[in-house]
Fold this sequence. Notes:
This protein has 142 residues and is α+β, with helices and mostly antiparallel strands. The chain has three helices and six strands; from the N terminus they run ββααββαββ. Strands 1-2-3-4-6-5 form a six-stranded antiparallel β-sheet, with helices on one face.
Amino acid sequence: MFVTDSLRPSSLLGQSCRHQALLTLPAQEAHVSAARHFAADLLETWNVPASERDSAVLIVDELATNAAQYGRERMTLLLVLDHGTLHIVVTDSGMAVERRRPDIAPDEHGRGTSIVQYLAQSTEVHQTRSGREVRACLRCSA
């Protein structure tokens, strides 16, 4: 596991930010709870209000779960709190998402994306050379 927290400018966003943290974990479902707890503790430290923190942690949980299911080697969670917006970026080393897994009932699959889209002000998914990147932005009054 690799963790950083800084107040330095974010090259990802091209502007200065108040807070930025990165967590890298193996892409395994057993590590999703670590990502969730990391986000909850960090956002509390950053004074993100409880209701907004709960929404952010749910987004992290859903994105990390997808990364663990479809990633092959590792997943990263980047949190950037900047000017009242929380940027949640989860990357994994997987390829395009399979649409259906035979070991999961159809009514238990696919809700996570809808939850993220409902809670976030914006979402983006990008396939990169090394895997997939999912971004969600959430307004925060911290």
